[in-house]
Write a structure and sequence with these properties.
By secondary structure, the protein is α/β, with parallel strands linked by helices. Helix content is about 20%, strand content about 30%. β1, α1 and β2 form a beta-alpha-beta unit.
């Protein structure tokens, strides 16, 4: 399975561990990108046939969420460590993994993007 990491920064070790556990060791394609308008993240997600994990400004998250798109974001704790992975889908945000482990939700992800586009 392939996923896109949309961020100016490389994945931290803890982030990569969460992604490997949740998505079953995916091929991660890192695209250093800065979204220049409100629609930027939504357009980026729509142009890909695989899950998108991203770091963006709140306006980009909100716009993509309002469009009903599916994407993934990380949460940082007070020590600035990555502590959780969230899925945004169907206008909702759900914590799906935390603490660097596969602890909240467990299911096969490979079928989700089959046939998209």
């Amino acid at each position: 399975m392939r996923i896109y990491w949309a961020s100016r920064h490389k994945l931290a070790e803890k982030q990569l561990k969460m992604l490997n556990e949740f998505f079953n060791s995916p091929e991660v394609i890192h695209e250093k990108i800065t979204f220049k308008n409100n629609e930027g993240l939504a357009d980026y997600i729509n142009d890909r046939n695989s899950p998108v994990v991203c770091v963006a400004g709140a306006v980009h998250y909100l716009y993509a969420m309002m469009k009903g798109l599916e994407f993934y974001i990380f949460e940082r704790d007070n020590s600035m460590e990555f502590s959780a992975l969230y899925r945004v889908k169907n206008h909702e945000v759900k914590k799906i993994a935390e603490g660097g482990g596969y602890t909240i939700e467990q299911h096969g992800m490979n079928h989700i993007y089959e046939g998209r586009k």
